[in-house]
Structure formats: C-alpha cells, structure tokens
C-alpha cells in the first residue's frame, strides 16, 4: 500500500561514529505533508464544530455586532448600559497609555457575551418551535393558521445554508409519554390478536402495573429525560443490539441492492473502483459536513447523529456485551477475495486515489494467484458465531495476528470481491433475484466481516450490494449513503467505452498488502464449528424478491391515500390469507424529529384493519362498504404513524419502563409479558430520499431496488418494500425454511393478490379483477387469487382519478 511504500525513505548508513539514521528528502517531505494534512483535518473539524455550534448565527454576525458597538461608543453612546465601563475596570491598567485598546477589548468582550446570549436565545427559541408537532397531525393538503404561523417563525429562526450537524443544538428531546396513555394504546393494539380470556388477563395485569409500579418507573424515566440527550436510544442500542448474544448474520444485519435492471459495467474491478471512490467521496463530504441535513417539508430538520459512525467503525465482540469502536480516520479498506485478506490504501500524497487507480489495485487482487493459508479462507465465519464465543476467540486471534486484525477492524469499510455473479437474469428472473437477496443477506457464511459497519459486496459480473450491521444506525442513514454512491459512480464518475473506470492507471502504486493470519492450532476447530453454524443459518433463510409493476405510488396518491398506509393494509390482508389469523405487526418508523432519536414501532394490526380484512372475506359486503372500511383503517394507521413519529408511541416507552424495572429488581408480570411478545410480521419501508440524484424520466431503470432483512420470529416474516419511481413497488420477503407455517414465496403471491384486490375497490383500479371472497379458507382464496392473476395480470390500472 502507499503508506508502507514510503518507509523506504529511512536509509540506514554507517559512519565512523557508528550507525545513524539518515532521513532522505522525500521522507522529510512526506512527514511534513502528513503533519500538514493532520492539522488541516483538525482545524477543519474545529471550524466546522464552531460553525454548527453557533448556527443559526454566523461569525460575521459577531463582527457586525462588534462594529455596531464600536460605532456607538465612538458616537458617545453606551449600548451596554454601563457594562463596558465595568469590564474596563477589570482589565489591566496600562497607565492610561492604551485607552483605545482597553475600549476595543471591552467592546469585544461585551460583544462576545451579548453574541453568546443571543445564540443561546436562538437555540432555545428554535428548540421550542421544533417541539411543535401540530403540523404532523393535520390532514394532508390542509394547513391551519397556527401551523402557518409556526412555519413562518421556523423560516425566520432556522438560518440559511445549514451544515449536516447545524441543528443538533436546537433539536428538542424526545418526550416521555403518559404511562396511562401508553398502557391504553397497548391494550388497544393487542385486542385484535387476543381471545377474550387472554385480553381480560392482560388488562388485569396492566391495571395492577398502573396501580403498583408505573409511577415509580415513570419518575425514573422523567429524571433520565431531563439529564440525558434521549431517554431511550442509548438503552435501545445497548440492550437490543450490543447485549444480544446471537449471531449478527440474518439476526442483526440487513442488505441494500444495486440497480435492479442495470449494471453499468460487467468488469468487477472497475465497478469496485468507482463504488469505493464514491463511498470515500461521501465520507469526505461527511467529514466536512457538506451533506445537508434531512428536512421534512423542506423545513423541519431530522437528527443527524447517526451519520457519525458510518465509516471507520467496527462492532467489537464482548463476553457480556459488545461495544462500537469508531476511528477518527482511516486511509485504507480491507478486501476479501477467494479466502484471502488484503489491505488496500485509499490515499496517495495527492489525496484520494482516483477510481482508475483503485480499479488497478482491485484487479491486482483478482489476478493474484496465491492460495489462501490454512483456515484463513473461513476465518470470517467467526464473526457469525454467537457473540460471547467470538469474543473469547478474538483474544487468541489478536494475540497471534494483531496487525492483520487491526487492519480489518480499522478499515474505512470492508470490501468483498465475490467470485460468483449475481443479479437479475432473463433466463430465470424470479430465482435469480431471490439468490441475489440471499447472497447479500447471508453470503456463504465466511465471505463477509459482519462486525464492520458495512460491507461492500462486488460480484464477478459487476453487480453491487451492501450488507449493513444494524447497531450503529438505522436504514435511512445507510440508504442515504447508498443513493449517493449509486448516483455518483454511475452518473458522475462513469465508465469508458470498454467498461473501465475513466482515467489512467498509476504504475507507481505498490501492490495491495496481503494480510497473513498466524492462527493458533486450537482455534481451527472453532472456525470449522462457526462455519457449520453459519451455513446452517444461511441455509435456513428463505428470501423472495419481486417487483410489483401493476401500479405504484402515483396510483395510490391519485386515490388520496398515503402510499405506506395503503401497503400496510394490503399486507394485513395478505398475511390473513397466508395464515388465516391476525398477528402483531411491527412497522419501523423513525423518531429523528428528536435529538438522538432512532425508531419507534407502529402496530399496524389494528381493530380497524381487521374489520377491513373481515369485510374483504365476506361475500355479502359490497365494494363501497369495503372501501369505506379501508379508508377508516388507513386513517387509523396514519394516526398511529404520526403519533409514533412525534414521540407518542407505545413500544419504546414500555421498553424503557422494562429496563428501569430490571435495574430496580422489580418484578412486573405486565412488562414481562410485553417484553416476551413475538412479532410474526415485521415490516419496513425503505425510503428513497434523494430523487434529485436520479433522472427517473430519462433513465427509469436507474433506481435502487431497496433491500431487506431477516424475520424477527422463527415462524414469522420480514417484509420490506420500496417505491421505485411512480409505477413500481419492489418487495423483499424473508422467512425460515424450518418453519412449516411460513413460505416467503407464498406470502409474495398473496401480497400481489391483495394489492390488486384493494386497488380494484377504487374507480381507477376497476380493470384489476378482485379475488373470490367469502370462501372461508386461505387455500381456496389463494387458488382464486392465482387464477385472477393469470387472467388479469397484463392489465394496467386506468389513469382516471377516483373517489
């Protein structure tokens, strides 16, 4: 790598006085440049932190204030009301020789104090403004007078040209909901899935909890909310992720896919070169805080704290709990290919390596004929082992191969050059997409370093993918980075006519550094055991991906409905057809309206949703009746979604109460029951956040196809979906093959049937035939739905508006 190459600058020479080290001129220059780069980074971080700390003010505002005070003093006016005179008395007396300097210093100190007070006032005012959530609860398209006034004030206090972390000092803290209201919402959410007997028992436990323990536990949470940045997020990260002892593979990681229909180049090394360069450009913008903060309604900022750990981050295993290790900077990536590990430098003297230079380095790895050392090929399987086991084994690895381990864990990110192709194929599109998703989620169990914040996967045919460790951040953050990467590597960096990265190779670059692992013999059986466990876990996961192209977001919006709520209600219908019963449904929604907010759960299986599903199964119900119930269910889901986003959800509050009870050694049967609930249907929407990066009208195929995750329950499903442009929805479904109750492909068919069935309720979807209803069984319903698809799947929804 480039850094190691500079070590030759140290020349050993012998003189009559003995041995001395002679520093060559290039080495002195390199030391100087290295120090200069380091100080530039420090000054840049300091300056950026200063700018974000004083935002929405600016350094120029201090200069203006200082000038105004000086001018007032010159005109014999005292804007300080005597404070400057008192400040002058505290300054050293230079015998009256520097009276003008004393005045200037007093004015500067007074201006600084006044400026700091104004900035603090601005932060408080903006925090109070951002605590208002009335805009979120209003119907779409309607805006009340208070909200208009609030919007105008936010515009005034928000400043201009914010940096990524500019709003962090002004974001409100997440409120602790009323415990009585949380319990009421919880009982309402479980009523549809419990029998009368079970519900009465649960309600009794809830009342006992409110009477005996709730007030004490709530008091501790209130205390924490006053002291900590967020009353729940740090516990969520620690107890849900870092204290989990299960394998990260499938259980914790999720994946993001490449373009569905397009591969910009079939050359593996070229695609890797452009992708790595684009990722490092994103890191460069992140370091400089040049990424604008995410704004809702182009005005309401979201918390940006999770962006800090995208790069240079590794989850270190521990016996009892893991911890996240983040490095300030890293100038290399760790690369895995055919069982071998390499360290590839990403910078030269002139800065970031060009895409063509990176392609050259990756091609050298692909052309390297050296074999993997014994057990090195499967070493990464240890990162799939139970965390306590891996923590103990890691000590042995670190003792014997510290340099190699540090190179991997200290890398900017991990790159896996896969030896197999992936992606959509014309010969078998359905099976190829499923295999693509499976390769991203689990791989072969030994070709991903699951501890890294993310692994960039480059397949042999040039297809890309991302495997992301979940503890450090949630999908919208990594998705934001992935959108930038795909758009930059394809539209800005581009490829030459022969498929290579643009530019010229650099023959002066040293070869990528091969990492060698001197592993003790006692660890070899553990690697084999971890590999068997990883293959068993990988072999048990069933992935199904299908693009739904009958209609998309534009059709749903013409129906004056929320696209997300539309999909969630269709999922309830599909799951009922699949299992013949209702279940607790987990939908993840962000709480980044608050400082250090992460996620909250929307319990989508509501009484209103169940009423709609039952109506769809009742042949006596007419289409208008079903449509009316559908709209009621959608409105209920929207209300739950907005409440969760505004900090009034159920599950994070109950989770935090449960953690407090464990700290206090209080036994709560009610909280224990809540904590033991199983989510048989876990869902999430993959947001597309930067549509301006993609020209979907001229290049409709250049849109990411989203990603997926494993099921939350052994007998459940994991379902994610992404709206690709205006006329397509891609679904990612996972389940476990060991379960006799689930089948990812079967649920996928039900989802397609349900979407067509729901769409046919609207005037704009009359061309889509509905399923047969009221046959009283999921098997008969599925057959009818399949027939409906066979006869009507080629029909597109009409474009007439509904309603």
TrEMBL record:
Bilayer topology annotation: Multi-pass membrane protein
Carnitine O-palmitoyltransferase N-terminal domain span: 1-47
UniProt-annotated stretches for the region Disordered: 775-803
Transmembrane segments: 50-75
Matching InterPro entries: Carn_acyl_trans (IPR000542), CAT-like_dom_sf (IPR023213), Cho/carn_acyl_trans (IPR039551), Cho/carn_acyl_trans_2 (IPR042231), CPT_N (IPR032476)
GO-annotated biological processes: carnitine metabolic process; fatty acid beta-oxidation
Annotated catalytic residues: 470 (proton acceptor)
Any one Gene Ontology molecular-function term assigned to this protein's record: carnitine O-palmitoyltransferase activity
EC number: 3.1.2.22
Family: Belongs to the carnitine/choline acetyltransferase family.
Name of the protein this chain belongs to: Palmitoyl thioesterase CPT1C
């Amino acid at each position: 790598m480039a850094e190691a190459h500079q070590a030759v600058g140290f020349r050993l020479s012998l003189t009559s006085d003995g041995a001395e080290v002679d520093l060559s001129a290039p080495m002195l220059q390199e030391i100087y440049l290295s120090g200069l780069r380091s100080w530039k980074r420090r000054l840049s971080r300091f300056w950026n932190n200063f700018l974000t700390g004083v935002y929405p003010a600016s350094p120029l505002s201090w200069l203006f204030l200082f000038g105004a005070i000086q001018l007032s003093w010159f005109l014999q006016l005292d804007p300080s009301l005597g404070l400057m005179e008192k400040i002058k008395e505290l300054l050293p007396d230079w015998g009256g020789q520097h009276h003008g300097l004393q005045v200037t210093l007093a004015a500067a100190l007074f201006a600084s104090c006044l400026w700091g007070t104004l900035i603090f006032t601005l932060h408080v005012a903006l925090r109070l403004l951002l605590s208002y959530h009335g805009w979120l609860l209003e119907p779409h398209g309607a805006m009340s007078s208070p909200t208009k006034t609030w919007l105008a004030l936010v515009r005034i206090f928000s400043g201009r040209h914010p940096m990524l972390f500019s709003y962090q000092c002004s974001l409100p803290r997440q409120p602790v909901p009323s415990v009585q209201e949380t319990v009421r919402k919880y009982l309402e959410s479980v009523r549809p899935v419990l029998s009368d007997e079970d519900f009465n028992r649960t309600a009794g436990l809830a009342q006992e909890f409110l009477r005996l323990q709730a007030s004490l536990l709530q008091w501790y949470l209130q205390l924490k909310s006053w002291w900590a940045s967020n009353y729940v997020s740090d516990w969520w990260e620690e107890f849900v992720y870092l204290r989990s002892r299960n394998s990260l593979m499938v259980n914790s990681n999720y994946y993001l896919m490449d373009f569905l229909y397009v591969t910009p180049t079939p050359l593996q090394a070229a695609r890797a070169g452009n992708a790595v360069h684009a990722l490092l450009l994103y890191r460069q913008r992140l370091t400089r805080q040049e990424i604008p903060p995410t704004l809702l309604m182009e005005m309401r900022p979201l918390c940006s704290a999770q962006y800090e750990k995208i790069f240079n981050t590794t989850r270190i295993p521990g016996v009892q709990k893991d911890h996240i290790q983040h490095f300030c900077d890293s100038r290399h990536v760790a690369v895995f290919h055919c069982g071998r590990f390499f360290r590839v430098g990403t910078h030269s003297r002139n800065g970031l390596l060009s895409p063509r230079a990176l392609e050259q380095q990756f091609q050298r790895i692909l052309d390297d004929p050296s074999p993997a050392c014994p057990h090195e090929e499967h070493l990464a399987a240890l990162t799939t082992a139970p965390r306590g086991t891996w923590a103990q084994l890691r000590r042995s690895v670190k003792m014997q191969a510290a340099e190699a381990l540090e190179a991997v864990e200290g890398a900017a990110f991990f790159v896996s050059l896969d030896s197999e192709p992936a992606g959509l194929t014309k010969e078998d599109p359905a099976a190829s997409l499923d295999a693509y998703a499976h390769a991203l989620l689990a791989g072969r169990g030994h070709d991903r370093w699951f501890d890294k914040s993310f692994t960039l996967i480059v397949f042999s045919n040039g297809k890309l993918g991302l495997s992301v460790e979940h503890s450090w951040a949630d999908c919208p953050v990594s998705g934001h980075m992935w959108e930038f990467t795909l758009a930059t590597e394809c539209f800005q960096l581009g490829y030459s006519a022969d498929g290579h990265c643009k530019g010229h190779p650099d023959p002066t670059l040293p070869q990528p550094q091969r990492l060698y692992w001197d592993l003790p013999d006692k660890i070899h059986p553990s690697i084999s055991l971890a590999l068997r466990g990883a293959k068993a876990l990988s072999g048990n996961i069933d992935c199904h991906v299908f693009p739904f192209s009958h209609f998309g977001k534009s059709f749903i919006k013409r129906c004056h409905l929320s696209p997300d709520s539309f999909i969630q209600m269709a999922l309830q219908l599909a799951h009922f057809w699949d299992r013949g019963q209702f279940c607790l449904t987990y939908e993840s929604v962000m709480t980044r309206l608050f400082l250090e907010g992460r996620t909250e759960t929307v319990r989508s299986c509501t009484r209103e949703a169940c009423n709609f599903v039952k109506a769809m199964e009742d042949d006596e119900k007419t289409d208008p009746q079903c449509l009316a119930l559908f709209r009621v269910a959608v409105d209920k889901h929207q209300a739950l979604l907005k409440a969760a986003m505004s900090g009034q959800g159920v599950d994070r509050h109950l989770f935090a109460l449960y953690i407090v009870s464990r700290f206090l050694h209080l036994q709560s049967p009610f909280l224990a029951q809540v904590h033991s609930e199983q989510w048989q249907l876990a869902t999430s929407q993959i947001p597309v956040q930067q549509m301006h990066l993609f020209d979907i009208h001229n290049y409709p195929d250049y849109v990411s196809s989203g990603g997926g995750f494993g099921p939350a329950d052994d007998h459940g499903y994991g379902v994610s979906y992404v709206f690709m442009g205006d006329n397509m929805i891609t679904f990612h479904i996972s389940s476990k093959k060991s379960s006799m109750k689930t089948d990812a492909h079967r649920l996928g068919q039900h989802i397609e049937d349900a979407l067509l069935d729901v769409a046919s309720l609207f005037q704009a979807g009359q061309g889509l035939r509905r399923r047969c209803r009221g046959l009283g069984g999921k098997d008969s319903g599925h057959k009818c739905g399949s027939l409906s698809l066979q006869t009507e799947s080629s029909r597109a929804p009409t474009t007439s508006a509904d309603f």
